[in-house]
Amino acid sequence: METKKVINKVQDLGALIALIALIIVISIISPQFRTLDNFMSLVRQSSINGFIAFGMTCVILTGGIDLSVGSTLALSTAFCAYFIKGGMPVGLAMILALLIGTGCGIISGLLVTKGRLQPFIATLITMTVFRGVTMIFMDGKPISGLGDSFLLKFVGKGNLFRIPFPVILFVAVFLIFLFVLQKTVFGRRIYATGSNATSAKLSGVNINKTKLITYAISGGMAALSGLILLSRLASAQPTLGDGYELDAIASVALGGTSMNGGRGRIWGTFVGVLIIAVLNNGLNILGVSSYYQSVVKGIVILIAVLSDRKR
Amino acid sequence: MKIKMSGINKAFGGNPVLQNAGFELNDGEIHALMGENGAGKSTLMKILTGVYTKDAGEIFVDGNEVCYKNPQEAEKAGIVFIHQELNVLFDMTVEENMYLGKEIVNKFGVCDKAAMRAEVKKILDVLGVDIEPSEKMDMLSIGQQQMIEIAKALMVDAKVIIMDEPTAALTQKETEVLFKVVRSLKEKGVSIVYISHRMEEIFELCDRITILRDGQYIGTRLISETDMTEVVKMMIGREIGERYPERDVKTGDVVFNVEDLNCPGVFSNISFNVRAGEVLGVAGLMGAGRTEIMQSIFGNMPNVTGRVFIEGKEIHNKSPEQAMKNGIGFITEDRKTEGLMLEESIKRNISLTNLNRISKHGILNRKDENEMVKKGIEELHIRCTGPDHSCNELSGGNQQKVVFSKWIFTNPKVLILDEPTRGVDIGAKKEIYSIINDLAAQGVAIIMVSSELPEILGMSDRVMVINEGKIGGFIDRNEANQENVMILATGGQNNGN
Question: Which band of pLDDT confidence, cut at 50, 70 and 90, is reported for residue B395?
């Protein structure tokens, strides 16, 4: 019993151990990698995937999946840029963008709950449609020339106590998700819905409402990611966020969350996001071609998921 | 084909299911196999057809001792088992289903559709049923699907066909068609083993009847020389021992009313009430609609009409969430798929129905949670290593106690129990009976659905019998016995009641 517990603990920490090992190995090879500046930029970069991955974790914990995050990001960002260019206060435009993202999530959620579509299909539909709407809205062209607002610059490029603001936001959002999933009634309902939906329903959990909210969160988080990107790029692109759902799902899987729902931890996703970021950053610095990078990333995910299955 | 089975023993994990069971079948007869749920009918037939291996005993087919290693061997010998859950692939056509695994192919390995279709047509004609071979399986009614199963049996030239509850899901009309087919098979010299709970059907269709009870052979009768009363007596003739703890019955006012509950095609005209501190037993055969009635009351069935009252106030349970808020608890029939999150800890399971109790403004209070769970484990004597013990590592009895604990903390006014002791060993059963009695003593109105007649008789203050979606009748504790409950459950009438 005791040894079993220890083994479980070690496996729980598997992703963390892998992360540390990766950092050590790449640090030894590359002096460029092991600078504080590089680490800060690495984490700042990872926050964009991170927000999406946190929302994705909630959806996957209920037994669903959200493929529409990349398109949702593009759509909400496009509107935000449009509003700002049209002279709306930046803060208000940003809030509206978050609401649009949340609304996109709610549409996916309604297709899953009321429409009884499989989550994969439902969000494949919204992914396609949201991308199309973005293209139509922007007429396929980027929106730039967003002016000189301090807030807009600060969100993606600013520092607070010499720490990049996206990093602070990343950690803060992580702590909020940690709290919600571990300490609140809603968190319990998310796990229960994914663990055994029938039992949860018969225990008085409104599983449709629970699912709907997780999709709304996922949409909102995609929009938040979009704001960071908008700030860093100073323009909105119609193809923004294309393929981001895959990095987010990979991060969740790396963190040990079961794709069947019910099992998983948000800190696992946190570590998973960092692993992906270290791989991207490290392989770039080491000069590995992007073709090989994809293969390496795939293999790392395979190893992580296989080691997780042994439990 | 003549079959003789005798002295058959079989145990699952040290738990004897068959003890000295036996059965004899003659050429061209329809032989009913009857017994309560769990009497061992299906197990005995699964041993005959090689699904299970026997621990002891002999099987003779036409005078030769046999022991089929698997259903395919039995099929080759001409014995086919049509299971209660039909073995059909819904997305494939009738002909594809019938030739599954034995397709007629030409020399290039390509299916010869024309040949298969012709053969299928021929067999369906023999059966006298009008089904198009190219029809998709899920377009057929359950009765027609059943016919395809029988047709499959004829394809392998079956001499014995075993049917397990073939009419359970059939309409009256479909049942008549089935009977016609079964009788014509008999005329062609095929023997039928007919497993059923439905007394009337057996008396209409069968030539002989063999009765099993608690895994033992009780007797065989000619249908023409017996009657329902004798059969029922043979099925249930055991004494109820001290298995049911004593209790003082002090029932209070009516707390729960159901008026004219209807669900088209499932049940109709269900009206009853339960008093505080009363245990209302709900008896009936499998598939009579008991579980569906309870699920409706708990807000978990669509298309239900009728009125439900708690303490005289009408309530509308559109979802389990609402039912729970209205003071109803529901311990479901299948704790593994409906009652518990098996992978999760005892703590997480007990908490799930009590999240409001252990939280403030949506934030959980760990201390309250741990205290509640500890109390639950202690009061119900759940044997475990602690609150974090995973539920799939608990015994059936302890799992069931976790489910009880989940609901006890919600302080229900009405607690519905669906098969509360299914798959629970005798010791834990008695503990669960004590828990039920304690709850009743605290004034909870209890509705207990059970397929175990002794349990119904030992625990209930009043018995409601359901027959085919309707109330067959109510019997008081003092008057209830196995016979009158069984007669109501099989659609008969009790004289003088």
Answer: confident
pLDDT at B172 over 80: no
Q: Are strands B313-315 and B305-310 parallel, antiparallel or unpaired?
A: antiparallel
Q: Report ipTM (2 d.p.).
A: 0.81
Residue B427's pLDDT is 65
Q: How far apart are the first and last CA of chain B?
A: 46
More confident residue, A134 or B116: A134
Terminal-to-terminal C-alpha distance of chain A: 14
- Inter-chain residue contact A204 with B325, CB threshold 8 Å: yes
The pLDDT value recorded for residue A1 is 44
Which residue, A57, A120, A59, A66, is CA-closest to A255? A57
Q: Quick one: pLDDT band at residue B47, thresholds 50, 70, 90? A: very high
Q: What is the mean pLDDT of chain A?
A: 89
- Reduced to 3 states, what is the DSSP secondary structure of residue B185? helix
Please answer yes or no on whether A185 and B363 come within 8 Å at the CB atom. Answer: yes
And the tokens for A118?
């499989």
Q: Are B179 and B200 in contact (CB under 8 A)?
A: no
**Average pLDDT score over chain B:** 86
What residues of chain B lie within 8 A of the CB of A191, using their CB?
A: 344, 348
Q: Do A185 and B356 touch (CB under 8 A)?
A: yes
Residues of B in contact with A209 (CB under 8 A): none
Q: How far apart are CA A35 and CA A42, in angstroms?
A: 11
Residue B433, number of CB atoms within 10 A of its CB: 20
* Sheet hosting strand B3-12, strand order edge to edge: B15-25, B3-12, B56-61, B64-65
What are the residues whose beta carbons fall under 8 Å from the beta carbon of A214, sequence distance 6 or more? A55, A58, A59, A61, A62, A64, A109, A190
Burial of A294 (C-beta count, 10 Å sphere; 0-12/13-18/19+) = exposed
Model pLDDT for residues A247-306, shown as the tens digit of each residue? 999 999 888 888 888 888 899 999 999 999 999 888 888 888 888 888 988 888 787 777
pLDDT of res. B368: 92
Nearest-angstrom CA–CA distance, A104 and A111: 11
Secondary structure class of A20 (helix, strand, coil): helix
Nearest Cβ partner for A199 among B341, B356, B385:
B341
Which run of H or E residues covers position A226?
A: helix A207-233
pLDDT value of residue B95:
87
- Separation in Å, CA B286 to CA B261, B327, B487: 20, 28, 15
* Nearest neighbour of B352 by CB, restricted to A1, A198, A205: A205
* Gyration radius of chain A's alpha carbons: 19
Q: Do B344 and A183 touch (CB under 8 A)?
A: no
Rounded CA separation B329/B9 (Å):
41
Q: What is the DSSP letter of B333?
A: S
d(CA A233, CA B492): 81
Q: The whole model's pTM is what? A: 0.75
